[in-house]
């Protein structure tokens, strides 16, 4: 039997930020791109143990899992605990598409007083608390790459990005963080 | 830069998140394999490119990913409405091409009142 | 003149101005050292030392001075440097603040500012009249680019761009607000107070270092019982303390675009002697505002009369700014030439500061009574109904020639400065950019906002509201809240004129400048009309009036009036040129902001990138991806390395990083049905565990993409696309799924980056990977060519494809991306132990060409059908529908003689054709030759021991066996047409 493969994560060893913002690569997590019609949402919600959000720009969290509304039949489900998302969906009995994207995405945590301004260095969204409260999420654009942004706290965001774009995203966030601290 | 209302996200978002996708309400013929060369040309190659109110498709490609339809005045760049894909062509209030419509730079040059 | 470090300049007026003498800064101008006060602009600092001559004009190289005190400055454009790389040409001296150590130089002069050889142009000016570029340099044609243009560019011009890379960095910020207010004068501040009181999110922007606008010069207006400027600073402090207000000073709203979108340029460090390392030089703000309040004020116009451009001649409001704000007088004996009351107040302020006012020359018979009375009280001579007919002085004005209008009796009055005013032009630039329509105010001879195109309102002077109480009321109402502010001006202003003044009319030949920056005179505009230009747009382009970097802020109205007079038409019918963004020049650095260096574009790297770099790979760019191109060993050049890689793959095995290939997971009960519609092939017949090469056409029948599609389960397909095609193929699929086939129960997910893909190709491929794979029989019988399976590789879940893009026994190992590096290392070690090697994209290209496998986009070009490419077998004959089914039946796509993909073998095996080279049947035919097609792929094939090529050739397959010719620059290469398979024609190796 061959050696078991070890994991090499993107952005390993990278850190950055400024006086007002911390940038941290998030720990590896299990991720699912989940697709289903509205009639099947309830069964999938039961299977996953959280209420899949059906309103635009919202998310739901329970038991170490977070489901982000990305489109009318699309969710990004992130499990930072024990995993098992694919199996849970398969057991739901509901018609759906579940695709493992755990390694496609990586995440950068943007935290601190200047977090919103940092992201606004490249993102055209209104990230004021009024327009984008805690729990709000969306796919959007950041400079020249696509990201998913989730507000995890008043001054904290999780930025999900495809792995080959993560160095670019981190670099632009780092410049944004510097500028946000001025 | 345009501000576009996505009918799925129910939110106004920057043009940077969108991609234009051509004229709307051009249905792919159901029996496409059977249609005449002329009908195929009409379907695939020919577009009206009207000045004024046009119906066009956009995709919220860096948002919810949905295609949708929009009625836009190409003279003022004003969106009269956006609506979900699959809905029939939505009527819009008649936009008088004169007073209410602010023309583009090029058309107003030499035309101050 | 330059004097000691403590010499702040002989023209400083004690007690005048708002600057602090304790804080000084040293700078040099054309090598000479000067001391300024902090808060000085370069203009005020130079004037304090009596320096008026600061540049040479664009075309005639006439001596020029400082005309204004603000961003509208057309003349005083200087080169401002911090060091050799941080040097910017064409900086307006009236905007640039002095910082300690600044090195400032004049432009467009040689050898020196006072003695400029180019000034000979002034004597040759009859040859440089309007339109001279078009008329003079017509012949001979070739001489334009070789001779005339370089000379003209050197002689006529502005500054010189720095050659070094810009070491500064720039920032960008997207922002949103309820109300954006452009301009922080009385109107803007009042509107801000009013809007902020409603709780609205307010962004207040002003291009000057401090708020106040016209209050910088207007020292007589009182607001809420205090000096207007002091009120402005107190109000700004109050606003800045509110959480819903952001004040941006030194920031220009340079563009007002669609749907409440505005571009702002904030100058962060240009005024600092030692800027912090983290500070961006400038910051671009991209603001989306629900409402916009324009409080952009008005710009004073100059008088158009003979020799009105000498240094020492400047706008009256500018002289007032230099006195009241900077504490500098523009002269000792100052003349005034005006058609508007406002210039009187400048004279009063100067007089009170101890400056001699030579005379106020007013072209009007009846100026405002109040200002005339005050002039009398102060003992200033007022000459009403008079004109300044001419001026003298070589490098600075020394006298003005004054006469009663209509009279030939003139007298010379000695002056060392002449301040002028023809009235005020509302700044409607941003309103016009927002696509608003203007109307002409006949009584006041000005254009004012009329029909708004966006949620926007103009207040104050830019809206034609000049009277202070009305202005405050208007601004307060615009803000939407309620504020009570009392304002009082000392004098109500009357008057104003546009067009040429006395002595510069159509019957004269004097040089009366309309546009200073482009050296356009009243005469030039009349010439344009005489030569048949009747629209202001034509006149503008013929004369270049208003086309300089100041965009005619001073000249447009004068030019228009002169043209209207010549055309004998009402002014509004002559038209108004369009105001375009940017309002003032914006540096490229600001527009580029973060998009430079590593952030210019994402450089996408695969999970095995670092390992390949460490293995010595040379990389090539494929879209945004970095792909390993070849792996040179010590002493190898590219050709040697590629030959070795190609040979090794066929003899032993090679390892290749295929991670960049696009991957789309197609899931749902209708997955096969959907793929049937999107690909030319049939997919319902493909069994789970098998894969197939698929062709995607567009509706017009041309090849759009290709790739191997594996069926993992009844309802789950793993689709691969070309590297460059991945995003557009997914977009294309989504388009059909969402809008044409929305009832299909299937979903698409991009998995390109989920999987690291390691291709192992060659006779020993199975031997290499077998020990790493668990739970799968890899034998030919159990896992034949074009099989796919989910299995475990090195303990991690994997997808294994038996497939080949080389014609050899091959596998593609897909593992979750984070495991790619570990699996790659294990496979590489096993491969090299068996005598195999890593190979890159170049070897991959050669190997696939040896087998005649196409690359979409290289061997096809968007006009190639599957049949043209020799892939007719991949088009299902049974399906009743797929995207492209009808397009393929168009007559032109079915005719004989279409270009078809064939192989070419050069008569001399060592000749490698050039990709893109044209192919002809008879190399001796007369030119232009009939071209049959072109070479799409050409390589040296080490495995074939000769060159190989593929080409698209008209009626190609019928020409197999024929000799055709490829004419090159130095010789003609004869080629034999063949089929496209050059190696292992029987195809046995793939099943090895």
UniProtKB/TrEMBL annotation, chain A:
Instruction: Note the SUPFAM superfamilies from the entry.
Output: Folate-binding domain
Q: Where is the composition biased (Polar residues)?
A: 1-11
Q: Which Pfam families match?
A: SoxG
Lineage: superkingdom: Bacteria
Q: Name one GO biological process term.
A: sarcosine catabolic process
Q: Extract the ranges annotated as region (Disordered).
A: 1-21
**GO MF terms on file?**
sarcosine oxidase activity
Question: Under which name does UniProt file this protein?
Answer: Sarcosine oxidase subunit gamma
The organism encoding this protein is: Pseudorhizobium pelagicum
Automatic annotation (TrEMBL), chain B:
**Gene Ontology MF: a single term:** sarcosine oxidase activity
* InterPro entries recorded: SoxD (IPR006279), SoxD_sf (IPR038561)
Q: Which processes are annotated in GO (biological process)?
A: tetrahydrofolate metabolic process
- Pfam family example for this protein? SoxD
Kindly list any coiled-coil regions of this protein.
none
- Name of the molecule in the record: Sarcosine oxidase subunit delta
Q: Upper taxonomic classification of the species?
A: Bacteria, Pseudomonadati, Pseudomonadota, Alphaproteobacteria, Hyphomicrobiales
Automatic annotation (TrEMBL), chain C:
Q: GO terms for biological process? A: tetrahydrofolate metabolic process
* Every Aminomethyltransferase C-terminal domain range: 899-984
Keywords of the record, alphabetical order, are:
Oxidoreductase
**One annotated GO molecular function:** sarcosine oxidase activity
Annotated GCVT N-terminal domain residues: 608-879
Q: Which Gene3D superfamilies match?
A: 2Fe-2S iron-sulphur cluster binding domain, sarcosine oxidase, alpha subunit, N-terminal domain (3.10.20.440), BFD-like [2Fe-2S]-binding domain (1.10.10.1100), FAD/NAD(P)-binding domain (3.50.50.60), Probable tRNA modification gtpase trme, domain 1 (3.30.1360.120)
Q: Read off the Pfam families from this record.
A: Fer2_4, GCV_T, GCV_T_C, Pyr_redox_2, SO_alpha_A3
Specify the SoxA A3 domain's residue ranges.
511-591
**FAD/NAD(P)-binding domain: which residues?**
178-456
Family stated for the protein in its record: Belongs to the GcvT family.
**Protein name, as recorded:** Sarcosine oxidase subunit alpha
| Organism field | Pseudorhizobium pelagicum
């Amino acid at each position: 039997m061959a050696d078991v493969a070890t994991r090499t994560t993107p952005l390993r060893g990278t850190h950055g930020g400024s006086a007002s913002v911390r940038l941290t690569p998030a720990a590896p997590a299990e991720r699912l791109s989940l697709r289903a019609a509205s009639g099947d949402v309830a069964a999938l919600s039961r299977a996953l143990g959280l209420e899949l959000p059906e309103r635009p720009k919202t998310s739901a969290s329970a038991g170490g899992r977070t489901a982000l509304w990305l489109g009318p039949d699309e969710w990004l489900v992130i499990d930072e605990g024990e995993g098992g998302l694919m199996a849970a969906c398969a057991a739901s009995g509901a018609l759906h598409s579940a695709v493992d994207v755990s390694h496609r995405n990586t995440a950068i945590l943007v935290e601190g007083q200047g977090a919103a301004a940092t992201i606004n260095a490249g993102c055209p969204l209104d990230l004021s608390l009024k327009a984008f409260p805690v729990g709000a999420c969306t796919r959007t654009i950041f400079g020249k790459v696509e990201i998913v942004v989730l507000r995890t706290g008043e001054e904290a965001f999780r930025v999900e990005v495809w792995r080959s774009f993560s160095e670019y995203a981190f670099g632009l966030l780092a410049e944004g963080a510097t500028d946000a601290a001025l | 830069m345009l501000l576009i209302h996505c009918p799925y996200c129910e939110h106004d978002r920057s043009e940077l998140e969108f991609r234009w996708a051509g004229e709307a309400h051009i249905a792919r013929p159901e029996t496409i394999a059977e249609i005449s060369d002329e009908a195929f040309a009409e379907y695939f190659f020919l577009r009206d490119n009207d000045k004024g109110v046009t119906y066009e498709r956009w995709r919220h490609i860096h948002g919810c990913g949905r295609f949708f339809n929009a009625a836009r005045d190409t003279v003022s760049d004003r969106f009269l409405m956006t609506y979900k894909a699959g809905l029939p062509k939505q009527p819009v209030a008649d936009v008088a091409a004169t007073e209410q419509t602010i023309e583009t730079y090029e058309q107003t040059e030499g035309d101050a009142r | 003149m330059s004097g000691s470090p403590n010499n702040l300049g002989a023209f400083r007026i004690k007690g005048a101005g708002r600057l602090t003498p304790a804080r000084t800064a040293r700078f040099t101008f054309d090598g000479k050292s000067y001391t300024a006060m902090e808060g000085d602009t370069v203009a005020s600092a130079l004037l304090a030392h009596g320096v008026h001559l600061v540049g040479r004009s664009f075309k005639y190289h006439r001596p020029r001075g400082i005309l204004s005190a603000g961003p509208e400055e057309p003349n005083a454009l200087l080169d401002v440097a911090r060091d050799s790389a941080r040097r910017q040409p064409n900086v307006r001296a009236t905007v640039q603040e002095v910082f300690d150590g600044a090195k400032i130089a004049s432009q467009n002069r040689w050898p020196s500012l006072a003695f400029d050889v180019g000034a000979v142009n002034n004597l040759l000016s009859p040859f440089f009249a309007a339109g001279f570029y078009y008329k003079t340099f017509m012949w001979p044609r070739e001489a334009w680019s070789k001779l005339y243009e370089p000379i003209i560019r050197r002689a006529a011009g502005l500054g010189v761009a720095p050659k070094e890379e810009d070491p500064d960095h720039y920032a960008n910020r997207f922002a949103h607000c309820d109300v954006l207010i452009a301009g922080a004068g009385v109107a803007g501040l009042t509107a801000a107070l009013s809007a902020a009181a409603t709780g609205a999110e307010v962004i207040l922007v002003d291009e000057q270092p401090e708020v106040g606008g016209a209050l910088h010069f207007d020292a007589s207006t009182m607001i809420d019982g205090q000096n207007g400027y002091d009120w402005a600073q107190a109000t700004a402090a109050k606003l800045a303390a509110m959480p819903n207000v952001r004040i941006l000073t030194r920031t220009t709203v340079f563009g007002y675009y669609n749907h409440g979108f505005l571009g702002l340029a904030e100058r962060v460090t240009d005024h600092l002697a030692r800027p912090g390392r983290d500070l961006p030089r400038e910051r671009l703000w991209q603001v989306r505002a629900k409402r916009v309040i324009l409080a952009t004020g008005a710009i004073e116009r100059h008088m158009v009369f003979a020799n009105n451009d000498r240094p020492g001649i400047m706008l009256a409001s500018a002289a007032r700014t230099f006195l009241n704000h900077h504490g500098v007088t523009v002269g000792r004996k100052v003349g005034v030439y005006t058609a508007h009351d406002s210039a009187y107040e400048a004279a009063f302020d100067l007089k009170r500061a101890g400056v001699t006012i030579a005379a106020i020359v007013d072209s009007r018979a009846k100026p405002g009574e109040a200002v005339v009375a005050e002039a009398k009280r102060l003992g200033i001579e007022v000459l009403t109904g008079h004109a300044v007919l001419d001026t003298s002085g070589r490098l600075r004005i020394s006298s003005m020639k004054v006469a009663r209008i209509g009279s030939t009796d003139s007298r010379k009055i000695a002056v060392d400065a002449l301040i002028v005013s023809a009235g005020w032009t509302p700044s409607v630039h941003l309103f016009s950019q927002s696509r608003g329509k203007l109307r002409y105010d006949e009584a006041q001879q000005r254009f004012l906002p009329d029909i708004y195109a966006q949620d926007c309102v103009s207040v104050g002077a830019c809206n034609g509201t000049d009277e202070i109480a009305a202005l405050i009321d208007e601004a307060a109402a615009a803000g939407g809240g309620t504020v009570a502010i009392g304002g009082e001006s000392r004098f109500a202003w009357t008057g104003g004129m546009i067009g040429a003044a006395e002595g510069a009319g159509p019957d004269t030949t004097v040089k009366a400048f309309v546009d200073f920056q482009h050296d356009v005179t009243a005469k030039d505009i009349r010439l344009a009309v005489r030569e048949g230009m009747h629209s202001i747009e034509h006149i503008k382009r013929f004369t270049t009036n208003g086309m300089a970097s100041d965009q005619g802020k001073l000249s447009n109205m004068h030019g228009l009036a002169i043209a209207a007079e010549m055309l004998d038409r009402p002014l509004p019918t002559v038209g108004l040129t369009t105001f375009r963004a940017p309002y003032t020049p914006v540096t490229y650095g600001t527009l580029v902001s973060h998009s430079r260096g590593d952030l210019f574009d994402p450089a996408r790297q695969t999970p095995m990138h670092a390992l390949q770099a460490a293995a010595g790979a040379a990389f090539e760019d494929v879209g945004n991806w970095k792909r390993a191109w070849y792996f040179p060993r010590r002493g190898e050049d590219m050709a040697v390395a590629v030959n070795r890689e190609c040979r090794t793959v066929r003899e032993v095995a090679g390892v290749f990083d295929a991670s960049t290939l696009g991957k789309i997971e197609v899931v749902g009960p209708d997955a096969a049905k959907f793929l049937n519609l999107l690909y030319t092939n049939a997919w319902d017949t493909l069994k789970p565990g098998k894969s197939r090469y698929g062709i995607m056409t567009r509706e017009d029948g041309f090849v759009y993409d290709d790739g191997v599609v594996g069926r993992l389960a009844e309802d789950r397909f793993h689709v691969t696309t070309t590297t460059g095609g991945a995003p557009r193929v997914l977009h294309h699929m989504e388009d059909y799924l969402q809008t044409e086939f929305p009832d299909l129960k299937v979903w698409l997910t991009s998995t390109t980056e989920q999987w690291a893909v390691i291709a192992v190709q060659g006779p020993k491929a199975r031997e290499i990977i077998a020990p790493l794979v668990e739970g799968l029989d890899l034998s030919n019988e159990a896992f034949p060519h074009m099989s796919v399976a989910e299995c475990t590789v090195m303990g991690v879940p994997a997808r294994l494809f038996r497939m080949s893009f080389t014609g050899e026994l091959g596998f593609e190992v897909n593992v979750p991306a984070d495991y790619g590096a570990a699996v790659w290392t294990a496979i590489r070690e096993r491969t090299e132990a068996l005598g195999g090697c890593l190979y890159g994209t170049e070897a991959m290209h050669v190997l696939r060409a040896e087998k005649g496998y196409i690359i979409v986009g290289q061997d096809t070009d968007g006009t190639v059908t599957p049949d043209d490419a020799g892939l007719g077998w991949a088009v299902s004959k049974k399906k009743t529908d797929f995207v492209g089914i009808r397009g393929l039946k168009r007559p032109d796509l079915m005719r004989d003689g279409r270009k078809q993909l064939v192989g070419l073998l050069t008569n001399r095996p060592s000749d490698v054709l050039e990709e893109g080279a044209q192919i002809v049947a008879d190399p001796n035919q007369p030119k232009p030759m009939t071209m049959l097609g072109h070479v799409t792929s050409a390589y040296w094939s080490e495995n074939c021991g000769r060159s190989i090529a593929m080409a698209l050739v008209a009626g190609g397959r019928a020409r197999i066996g024929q000799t055709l010719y490829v004419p090159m620059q130095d010789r003609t290469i004869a080629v034999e047409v063949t089929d496209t398979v050059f190696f292992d024609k029987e195809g046995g190796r793939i099943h090895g």
